[in-house]
Amino acid sequence: MELTIFTRSQCPLCEQAKQQLHILQKEISFRLIEKDISSSEDLTEQYGLMIPVVEFEGEIVAYGKVHLFDIKQRLQRKISTI
């Protein structure tokens, strides 16, 4: 299972989100892919005001202030429907 987090350098919310996701990795096994939106005009346009953005299978499961409990629940619901 893979989660993608869209971030930007010098983004405190992004750093907090990554910390939350690393904690979650201890409970739910997934690979975390980080994409810096600064590397793409399309990504900057799409996610610029929302970062950090966490996606699972192409669907946004969290953005802005990412909370461990909320994202865990969303992932468990998505996993149970697979």
Q: Helix proportion of residues, in percent?
A: 40-55%
CATH homologous superfamily label? Glutaredoxin
Please trace the helix and strand order, writing H or E for each element: EHEHEEH
Largest sheet: 4 strands, mixed
Instruction: Tell me what portion of residues adopts beta-strand conformation.
Output: 25-35%
Number of helices: 3
Which class in CATH terms?
A: Alpha Beta
How is the CATH topology named? Glutaredoxin
Radius of gyration: 12 Å
Shape descriptor reads globular
* Average of pLDDT: 90
* Protein structure class: alpha+beta
- CATH A-level architecture: 3-Layer(aba) Sandwich
The residue ranges in which pLDDT falls below 50 over 5 or more consecutive positions are none
**Strand order in the largest sheet:** 2-1-3-4
Distance between the termini: 11 Å
Task: Work out the count of structural domains.
Answer: 1
The count of DSSP E runs of length 2 or more, i.e. the number of strands, is 4
Task: Report on the architecture of this protein.
The chain is built from 3 helices and 4 strands, in the order E-H-E-H-E-E-H. The chain is an alpha+beta fold and 82 residues long. Helices cover 40% and strands 26% of the residues. 22% of the residues are buried. The protein has a 4-stranded mixed sheet with strand order 2-1-3-4, covered by helices on one side. The model has no long low-confidence stretch (mean pLDDT 90). It has one domain (2-66): Glutaredoxin. It is globular.
